[in-house]
Structure formats: structure tokens, C-alpha cells
UniProtKB/TrEMBL annotation:
Alphabetical keyword list: Signal
Organism the protein comes from: Cupriavidus pampae
Record-linked PROSITE patterns: EF_HAND_2 (PS50222)
Stored InterPro entries: EF-hand-dom_pair, EF_hand_dom
Protein name: EF-hand domain-containing protein
Region feature (Disordered): 34-60
Biased composition (Basic and acidic residues): 34-58
The UniProt record lists the keyword Signal: yes
Keyword set includes Signal: yes
EF-hand domain sequence ranges: 33-68
Signal sequence range: 1-24
Length: 106
């Protein structure tokens, strides 16, 4: 079960990268590379290096995360972690997949 959540998080981060047009250069070869790129982008955006993105940090460096900030910050703490971002985009990808193919849950 744990490996499912790790894979879902990786997929979510990969979706986040696609959504943020981070693939303008060259696409990562696999989910591991996509996760590494996302982690680097998150670290670059995290100006105060607290491991979380404030709304302001997201606004200046990660527009797709900023656009969905209130949906990602479910605990309303004012800071979102890489895990929260990955979970949000994994769930969003799952909803989109089900909308395209309702039978995909079976």
C-alpha cells in the first residue's frame, strides 16, 4: 500500500511539472527525474528554506501551485509542503483520468 502512495506522489509531482510548463527544455526520462526536477524547483522557490512554500513564494516561482494554493493548503497553515503539493496533483490527475474513462477504477 505504501508503494502505491509513493508512486501516486511521484505521478502527482510529474503532473505538477507538466502543468507548470517545466518541460519547456527537455522532458525528464522517467518519474524519478521528474521528481528530482520538481524538488529542485521547489527548493529554489523556498526562499526562506523552511521546507514549505508560502503563498508569496508560490506566486513568484510556481504559478500553477499558486493558482491552486487554497486547495493544496487544506490545513490552512499558510505553508505547503512537497508532500501536500504531490498529493493534490496526484488526486487531480486521478479525477481527470476517471472523468476521461469512468471504467478505469475497476
Amino acid at each position: 500500500m505504501r508503494s502505491y502512495f509513493v508512486a501516486a506522489g511521484s505521478v502527482g509531482m510529474m503532473i505538477a511539472l507538466v502543468s507548470m510548463n517545466a518541460f519547456a527544455r527537455q522532458k525528464p526520462a522517467n518519474a524519478q527525474e521528474a521528481k528530482a526536477e520538481f524538488t529542485q524547483k521547489l527548493n529554489d522557490a523556498d526562499i526562506n528554506h523552511d521546507g514549505k512554500l508560502s503563498r508569496e513564494e508560490a506566486e513568484s516561482a510556481m504559478p500553477e501551485v499558486y493558482k491552486n494554493y487554497d486547495k493544496i493548503d487544506t490545513k490552512k497553515t499558510g505553508g505547503i509542503s512537497q508532500k501536500q503539493i504531490g498529493a493534490y496533483f496526484a488526486a487531480k490527475a486521478k479525477r481527470q483520468q476517471v472523468a476521461r474513462d469512468p471504467g478505469s477504477l475497476n
